[in-house]
Amino acid sequence: MAAERTFIMVKPDGVQRGLVGEVVSRFERKGLKLLGAKLMQVSNELAESHYAEHRERPFFNDLVSFITSSPVFAMVWEGENAISIARNMMGKTNPADAAPGTIRGDLGLTIGMNIVHGSDSPDSAAREIALWFNESLADYERAVDVWLK
Ligand code: RTP
Ligand code: MG
C-alpha cells in the first residue's frame, strides 16, 4: 500500500499542559514520518471551516471557542495506513472510553478537552491538509524507512 498522509493537531489543552513533545514522540516512535508542523493561533474562520461537519451539533460553538482559545500544534504525518494508525493511537473521542495506551486514554479526562485531533478518512485528510498547510510540505528520505516496510 502507498504511503498515506494525515492531519494531526495537538489541541489547546495539550499545548497548555505541555504535551506537544509527548504526542510528537508517540508518532515518531511508531515510525510515522513528520512532513510539516507549526504552532499557531486558530482564527474563527479556520475553526469553523475545520469543524464544518459539526455545524449543526449542539457543541459546535463550544468547540470553536475551545479550539481558538489558545495556540494549537498542527502537523502532517505520513506512513502506510497513517490515518487509521493515528486514530487508533489517539483512542476513542471520549477519554473516559479510550483504552489505556492511547493518547486520550492515558492523558485525557473529558470529551471537551481530548488533547488531539486526527483526520478520520482519506477525504478528510486531504481536505484538512489543504486547509491547514498552504505552504509546501517537506519532501525527504529517511534511512530508517527500509526497516519500516
Ligand atoms: P476530532 O475530530 O477532534 O479528532 O475528534 P473525533 O473525530 O474523535 O470526534 P468528532 O466526532 O469529530 O468530534 C469532534 C470533537 O468535538 C468534541 N465533541 N464534543 N460534547 C460532545 O458531545 C462532543 N462530541 C464531540 C470533541 O472534542 C471531539 O474531539
Ligand atoms: Mg473528527
UniProtKB/TrEMBL annotation:
One of its GO terms (molecular function) is metal ion binding. InterPro entries: NDK-like_dom (IPR034907), NDK-like_dom_sf (IPR036850), Nucleoside_diP_kinase (IPR001564), Nucleoside_diP_kinase_AS (IPR023005). It catalyses: a 2'-deoxyribonucleoside 5'-diphosphate + ATP = a 2'-deoxyribonucleoside 5'-triphosphate + ADP; a ribonucleoside 5'-diphosphate + ATP = a ribonucleoside 5'-triphosphate + ADP; dZDP + ATP = dZTP + ADP. It is found in: Cytoplasm. Keywords: ATP-binding, Cytoplasm, Kinase, Magnesium, Metal-binding, Nucleotide metabolism, Nucleotide-binding, Phosphoprotein, Transferase. The lineage of its organism: Bacteria, Bacillati, Bacillota, Bacilli, Bacillales. It is an enzyme of class 2 (transferase). This is Nucleoside diphosphate kinase. The keyword DNA damage does not apply. The active site is at H117 (pros-phosphohistidine intermediate). Its cofactor is Mg(2+). One of its GO terms (cellular component) is cytoplasm. Homotetramer. One of its GO terms (biological process) is GTP biosynthetic process. The gene is ndk. Transmembrane segments: none annotated. It comes from the Bacteria. Residues 3-139 form the Nucleoside diphosphate kinase-like domain. It comes from Alicyclobacillus mengziensis. The keyword Secreted does not apply. NCBIfam families: PRK00668.1. Signal peptide: none annotated.
